[in-house]
């Protein structure tokens, strides 16, 4: 058999090479600068870690089983917060997504406004939202639900609008061509194309929200985070072990279930 | 009857899609429009159901100028003008029956169609349409489980269910292999004869145009450069329409296999 040798690669120009070198140097400088300026005292950090390792880690691995009931209840609350929050977000995100998708409302103005609203919503970190809602509705699970709902609406709205923008518009045109009105087109041409993806992203977001809602309690917005902050303040590492175990188990189960369900629908 | 009177269309970017088209298509005719890609065939066909809007002239369908139609009138026009596309344009995730019933949307109230409450006659019409193009055994399959030829037959059934007076077909066989192409064209021709539906088809294959058309309209650069019955057409005519000699890939072939 004949062997072929590849034709020579096109040579990079001097300008290109110079650009590459400068960019590489800049990136390295940036890293050096950041690490120098955070000013880590490595000696102290290692010493502390070594001490606490002895004290804390073994306790984390011998969970306090007497707390199981309490931990399970508050983990359940966490799941409920995530579920209610992501459900609310999935509903709120739909109209915003239609507004933001450039192929739906028939106008660049609407889609730009929609995209702005969604970016503005996304700009708030979950914890900040939680703090705001704790102030607004009091330190309870409802504050957590609202924080999750608003936090997820931004991301889901963006995802949904991208799904809407990716549909096959020729199908829409086919429906227009046989005399269907706007609402009929929505139900016959648009919805069959978007619903499976919408569900898939909503479930994925629920998965993310489980993790998010387990720390919301730190600022008093309900769920297992409240227990985390108490256990940590009281140096109760055994109970912290139980809490971590609960979070790991629940998150794993939900990740697994969610990816199974999502594979089924798309 | 469809009458083009001095119809021109200039796209926003300045391209002239149609230049002063004057032609009349009588009821029951089977017209094939030929021309190279970019000659304005699609623009011509899509003007008739106003998927594109000509910028001047008058275009009459059944004696009414459709160029100033707005949403209500437009939907009424479109319910009597069915359309078949090159890419079939079925909803891939819906089943065949639902796709075919979509042909009734223009005749069905919004609430009824959303709740899937079709009249018995509509459902039986949909089934009959599927039977006519021989695809009735796939009625509960999802559209994306069908082959290209089968999908195009479903889209013909969708148009039949619409009970149109006119059928427009924009390159209906361009994505199909030769035997399937002939099958699809045979169904279109049969429907044209049996139901007396005026049919206008865009094709770029010369042999298919000759085999199925009653009348051929040749287009080049947005203008009608030939218009006459198929008996007056020879290879010379196509060379004039295309502005070059005829090549192998201007022919679909496979007529014997169907």
Automatic annotation (TrEMBL), chain A:
Keywords: Membrane, Transmembrane, Transmembrane helix, Transport. It is found in: Cell envelope; Cell membrane; Membrane. It is a multi-pass membrane protein. InterPro entries: MetI-like, MetI-like_sf, PhnE/PtxC. Residues 75-258 form the ABC transmembrane type-1 domain. The keyword Iron does not apply. Pfam families: BPD_transp_1. The chain crosses the membrane at residues 20-38, 79-101, 185-204, 210-231, 243-261. GO terms for molecular function: ABC-type phosphonate transporter activity. One of its GO terms (cellular component) is cell envelope. It comes from the Bacteria. The keyword Oxidoreductase does not apply. Belongs to the binding-protein-dependent transport system permease family. NCBIfam families: PhnE. This is Phosphonate ABC transporter, permease protein PhnE. It comes from Virgibacillus indicus.
TrEMBL record, chain B:
Residues 2-246 form the ABC transporter domain. Keywords: ATP-binding, Cell membrane, Membrane, Nucleotide-binding, Phosphonate transport, Translocase, Transport. One of its GO terms (cellular component) is membrane. It comes from the Bacteria. GO terms for molecular function: ABC-type phosphonate transporter activity; ATP binding; ATP hydrolysis activity. The keyword Nucleotide-binding applies. InterPro entries: AAA+_ATPase, ABC_transporter-like_ATP-bd, ABC_transporter-like_CS, ABC_transpr_PhnC, MetN_ABC_transporter-like, P-loop_NTPase. The keyword Protease does not apply. This is Phosphonate ABC transporter ATP-binding protein. It comes from Virgibacillus indicus.
